[in-house]
Each structure stands twice: as C-alpha cells, then as structure tokens.
Amino acid sequence: RGGDVAMYELMREAVEVWAEVGVICLSDGATGRDDGVVRVVKPPVAPSRLLARAIRRGRSLVHTRFDVDGLLPAIEAEETDGFVAVHSYMAETFLRSSRTGSVPLHVSREVSEAKVWAESARPGARLEVPRIERDELRVARAATSVATYDASDAEQLAARGVTAHRIPVVMTPTRQARVAESGPRLIFLGDRRWPPNAAAALQAVRLWPRISEGIDGAELLLVGHVGESTPDELPPGVRNLGFVEHLGAVMGTARGLLAPVDVGGGVRVKILDAASHGLPVVGTTAAVGDLTEQLGLEPYDGEAFVERCRALLLDADLAAEAGDALYRRNAMQWDRRVTQHAVERWLGREEAGHA
C-alpha cells in the first residue's frame, strides 16, 4: 500500500467508531457496487486530451486528470450526511455536482501535489506547480473543512485564510522490535514506483559508503516495490529486498529506519509504523516534519544524518534506548486517543451520523 492509502485507512478506522462509512473510488479493475464500495473505472491517460481539457477548464493537469465523469452519477446517487475527499484533486467532481452546498465536503490533504511536482524530474513538471497550488487553494476554500497531517501545511493554509485541522496520526503499538539484539543493519522503506521515494532510495544508496565506512557487517536493506530508477549495481552491504509480505519481521532485525527524503507525506506512515514497533528513525527535516513534537523525533540533515546512522550501527544500546523512547511516546499518544479526537473535531461528530 502507498502511504496515502495507509493514512486513509487509519482515518477511516477512527471514523467507523461512530459513523457508517461508504467508499467511492477509482478502479483499474472491476467496477460496480460491492460491500459498501462503489468502484468507478479510472480512465487511461490520454496526454493530448488531458492537456486540452486542462487548458479549456483553466485547471492543473493533476486536478483535471482526476475529475472523472464516471464519478458524477456515483456521487449524485449516494445518500449521506457528508463526503470526504482523500486528496484535494478528488474533490473536483464533487464540486461540479448538485450535492455541492447541500451536504458537507471534508477534504483530507495527504500531501500537497504541488510539493511532489516541484521535486519531479519530469520535463515541464515544475511549470505545473503554480496551477496545482491555485487548484489546491480553491478546493480548500470551497470545502466545509480541511484536514492535514502536517503543521507547516496548516500554517500555510492559515496564511491564506483557510483554517485546517491537523490530524496527529499514531498507529497501534505492536510487538516491540528487539533492537538491542539486532546486528548493524538499517532499512529503507518505501514504494520506489513513486518518484519521491525513488529519489530518497537513491540518496540512501549514495550515502551508504560514508555511513558504513569501517563498520564490519553493516547492511542496508531496501524494502518496498522496486522502481525503474533502482540501480542494478549496489554498494557493498546494500541488499534490495523489494516488496516483503511481513514487514514487522524485517523491522525486528534492524537498528533503525533511515528516511533521507525531500518530500514528506507517504514517508510519514513508514515513520509511524517504525514508532509502533519501537524502531529508531533517522529522518531529514522533510521526513520528520512535526513528528518532532508528536513523537519526540529529532530531524537530521546533511552530515548529521550520516553521523546519526553511524551511531546506531556502532552502538546497539544507543539504538535500543532510542527505540524504547519512541515506542513509549507512541503508546502514550495511542492511549490518549489523540487521532480519534482530532478526526472527530475535523468532521464535526456532534453533527454527523453517517459519512
């Protein structure tokens, strides 16, 4: 699962405590209604038609891409007290439906697509950034309420007159990793078919010779679906595991998770997962974000990133201490039901019965 899907499922679990939840989604496979899920065919990308539609509507390519005609009858037919759009661009079809103004629209901003496109190496991608930012702001202003997982994103919206609810997500504490018994091993976790994750994996590989220098038996495990940019030849000590079925088992063999990313969002789920296992995290400022406040994580950039990775590889007791502190902080947040309460405030539980 991608990080955005995992975040959505955590949010949905919080809502299902007090409301019925149905789903309308785009599908590459089967369509129709089944067990509360309405699947609408996801049209293939036709670049020339997409560009023409975007120009005609004055919208960004990504917001045009996900304004799908097939979603309209599904939205019109659904009897509900409110809609939640997961990602800003998924609100587009709703905003041109007859339901606009008659039922609440809540928008969940998993990660700003403008930030993703700004870091993309695709030709012309950065030219789209201003249009995406304009579309995301328009959707936020049209929504009944907006949620974000990042404090800086909420601050940026506030500066433009939009109040956003920050959702401090935590995951269920699970079996704690035995960090003290692990060897000198770090893991990188992420679906490398997504460009920001692919770029972060390449950065981890580039840094590894400096991180592992002089440390006998040091290993870096690359975990997650493999993208085209993953090099065939890897430095000594780097192993490409690809997708693994039982992630907890892999986490249980490591001293820490490293996240040298430039764009946060999906990586947040990986960090939350590591916290739920008590696995230390070495993340950049972009990766950690406001989890510094929530989980007590310190960001590491530049040379400090390399040195912190080396410290965990060289000292199992240091790594175990960091893992214990992270595990306890996550468990405390879980016991206080911080995610549950934040989601309820965002969706206005006192007014809702079915979402």
Describe the model.
The chain has 355 residues and is of the alpha/beta class. The chain is built from 16 helices and twelve strands. It is 44% helix and 14% strand. The strands form three sheets. It has a five-stranded parallel β-sheet with strand order 10-9-8-11-12, sandwiched between helices. Strands 4-5-6-7 form a four-stranded parallel β-sheet, with helices on both faces. α1 (3-16) crosses α11 (266-277), α9 crosses α14 (303-314) and α11 crosses α15 (316-335).
Tags for this entry?
four-stranded parallel sheet; alpha/beta; five-stranded parallel sheet; globular; 355 residues; single chain; 12 strands
Major sheet details: 5 strands, parallel
Note the run of SSEs as H and E.
Answer: HEEEHHHEHEHHEHEEHEEHEHEHHHHH
Q: Percent of residues in helical segments?
A: 40-55%
Radius of gyration: 21 Å
Could you tell me the mean pLDDT? 89
Give the neighbour order of strands across the main sheet. 10-9-8-11-12
Number of strands: 12
**Which class best fits the helix and strand makeup?**
alpha/beta
H/I helix tally: 16
Helix-strand blueprint:
Elements: H1 3-16, E1 23-27, E2 32-34, E3 37-41, H2 47-57, H3 61-65, H4 71-77, E4 83-86, H5 92-95, E5 105-109, H6 113-118, H7 129-142, E6 145-148, H8 151-159, E7 164-166, E8 185-189, H9 195-212, E9 219-223, E10 238-242, H10 247-251, E11 256-259, H11 266-277, E12 281-283, H12 285-288, H13 291-295, H14 303-314, H15 316-335, H16 338-347
Parallel strand pairs: 1-3, 4-5, 5-6, 6-7, 8-9, 8-11, 9-10, 11-12
Antiparallel strand pairs: 2-3
Helix pairs in contact: 1-11, 9-14, 11-15
